[in-house]
Amino acid sequence: MTSLAGNPRARSLRVQTVRLLLPLLLAGAITGIVRSATSTVVPPPTPSGATPVPILPAQPAAPSSDRAPTVASAPPALAPSSPIAPSPIAPSPIAPEPLAPAPTSEVWSKTPVLTPRRAVGPRARACQVQAVGEWFKVRCLGLATSAITELGGNSQNVYLHLDAPNDDGLPREGVIVFALQPRARRVFSFWTLGDGYDGPLTVIAGVVVQAYWQGNEPVVLLHDALNQPVRTAQSELRARAAASATTAKEPRP
Amino acid sequence: MIDRDVRNRWLAGITVGLLVGTASACTCSKQPPPPAPNVETVSAPTSITAAPTETAPGQPPAVLPPATLVGSAIARSPDGNTLYIADETNSKLHVVPLALAAPRLDGKVPFESVALPGPPAQVVVTNEHVFVTIRNPGLLWVGTPRAAEDVTSSEADAAVTETFTVDLPADAFGLTLTQNGRAVVTSAWPAQVSYVDVAQRRKLWSVEVPREPRGVVVDETAKAAWITHLVGSAVTRVPLDEAATAVAPAGSPPPSPVQPDAPPIPERVNLPAAPLRAPDSPLAAALGYGAVLSPDGQRYYVARHALGAQGKNAWFGAATVDVLDVATRSAVSPGRPHAAAVAKSELAQQLISGGDTQVPGSSLTPFTQPRAIVYRKSTRTLLVAGEGDDRVAELDADALDPTMAVIATYPVGADYHATYHVPKHCAAPAGLVLSHDESRLWVYCAATNDIAEVLLSAPDGASGSPPAAPTTPAASATAGSAAPASTPTQNPNGASTDSPGETPSAPAFGVVARLHLLDDPLGPGGSTGRKLFYSAIDFPTSGGLACAGCHPEGRDDGHVWHEATFTTEDGTKTNFVGHAANIPVEAHTQGYARRTPMLAGRVNAPGPYGWHGESANINARVLVGFGLHRWGAEPETPPAERNKRAAVLLEYVRRGLVPPARDAVPLTAQEQRGKELFENPNIGCAICHPPKSGFTTRRPYRLTPPLPLVTGFDEDPESRYKIPDLRFLKQRAPYFHDGSAPSLKHLLENNDYRMGNTATLSAEDRGALQAYLETL
Description:
A: alpha+beta, 11 strands, B: alpha+beta
């Protein structure tokens, strides 16, 4: 956490990592470094004796007259490969007790993509949300997902998955599957890569997912994370050096 | 929440009450028309349809609901044609007509200034009257605007004439009007909340609440006022149901159902600060200047600062908007999971930054030092004024944690100084008011005394389809950037703005006009010092939080900081952090306890300064502060520039900071007895705290026996602490350098022989001594 930035040993490791990865990354050839990285999955807390059963998709889209006009926003951007057209999240009944098992992959593959109440920012708008009963699935298309963490809420009935990395070792997309039962509130973060104290491969927040029930309506909010690191003397020097380098490269008028 | 019929009934009732009064002597003066450059039209937006006026020119004014019943440093008239600004620095109410066609700022229409009986804090405008809280003396000032159709008015008539005032406890600050013709007012320093019957022009009651009450809103459904505090994370709920305010002692007969003069019993309601960033225990909070209720009254949003919040390089904590579910009186944020689910790529596991994923990676400061907040109904968003970074952030009001759901940011500061990163225009935004159609926002900037008119992003832009995606690197004028604000800026989600002087294209959103009101009476040096005091983005001065972040209005945040030496990428330095958990674990330290001192009215002595009296004078102390108040090392800055910063800051803190207003009352018999004890050489208080020198000798002194070490801190090897100035003591809890005494009573009862011979005093005499100390 905050301490790692100041740890000389850790800093040394970071420098070594960046020195090693950056040239290779720029050359498009860091295969072999993290090729063995496969998806990291939080084991699902399977209910004892539960048998996976198909879960019916959520109710088809229905106009909600009590929703504010601004909520009925434009459909989110979809990846070209998306097989199912988006539709607004429909009001769902209060989740039955006990919680149904998580839907299977086959069920998810047949489930329509839904429109979250709000998706702000290009990364967030590229995310797909699906719902099957009280189960929700969020995948952020095209986001190099270096990590996913649960920031708030109950950690039960949460499944996180990262796709296997690319051949060059860089992470690909990730998926969150979670149950959203009445009164549940959840906050997740998709982490990606960007500029920071690990150089261009710094793990930075990408998309924040917030979900809860409002009456009988599930609310899913997706927001691009605003990244503004606290300044340090060293970061200032790096920024000035980068600015100088940019200026030097600009052609004279 | 408040429909038009209800408001009209309220207005009718209040008008009847007010019409029976007579206007008192006019205290108003007309401001000469400002020169044309006062209003800067930044650009002419073309993408938004002009807001319709509610009153057509030449037509009799309709009875319209107030824009809001909640006070702010800036308000607009119900017809949307006039802005009213509470100018605390100059003790004036500025009346700014808007161009009727838009409405918008128009330099062709001169503004007027009305002299007030003291420095104002907040203003609310109804069809008939202008309500203003006055800090010193404590007043609710009620004036009547000049009628637009009054053909008998002459040039000599003021824009607003005083109608009446209501005496209140000193330091009247927050203001909200209720539907039944009442006003609720907070008095910050005396820690009081007052209830005023406007029609009868009298205070019904005042009730004591915890220290520094500021923002007030009223839940009309539950008949209760919600109060924020500058200090502490809990909020206060004050019942206003007049049938329930008559509180009878236990065992007594039931009270009469209607006793509006009987003060209610306030309730404290816990509202954890930034729970998703909390370590293992709830965080303290500061800067709770204001709050807002959602239109349905279900959510209560408190904008403030979470002290000790976790995050990357988070020495100062984080800005936060904490949300309370009003019905259940519980936080909306779920809090951190006990065993959080995590999935991490191998790459992330190898990177140092991969270890930072346990707490939110979003910016600690989507806004810095929140000073005002409003709710934008049409988009279900919140607009928060960042005093420290000269901008307004727009957040998703539906979010569990709105600070992690930033929709847009609107920089309002412009024309930044080449040496000091402070703006010429719109420094330290302190008040917000929306236009009727919510397409525009007027921002009052207190440190430069001007108004910025901001065109907001379209509602559909805030609900899933923001404006065009950014095409340039983001945030050139944000906290953490030294880029000149004359460069067009864009936030990560697309809202953009231009600054004056550069109009490559008409901006779709952002500042479109500015109006300067009055120059700073402190002159150039003090003016720059004022801006620096409130600015968090002048990096040589501090690392992301301004002086005012810990010393709001020159007072204190009530927090005990950790002064610790640890290693960052800048090397090994000594910094202040808000919580021991902010310190790198490798440092194996928790830091020394440093209770924030109050500055206003307490920095005129030549010296020494510092916890141990280690700084010979205040100039030296300010220079030390530049290094302490950040993460890591100071940037390389020429000594002359450092000294200039210290000089202008010193000028402001000595001449510009206003000591808290207090009511001057003679000592009671008990207080007089306490004074005698204090000055009695056998008791010994005045030996170290001589009244003639500000109640301090300023010498370092070792408490014997030493105070027990407070959990979470290290023992300071230097155990002699500078004897503190006792002025303004009553409202400066907790006490001692480590905050270990929660009250004066606790301090005196547990003093032993550390300070004087108070242990020999009877309980009655200790009470008298306490009573006297509270008058200092």
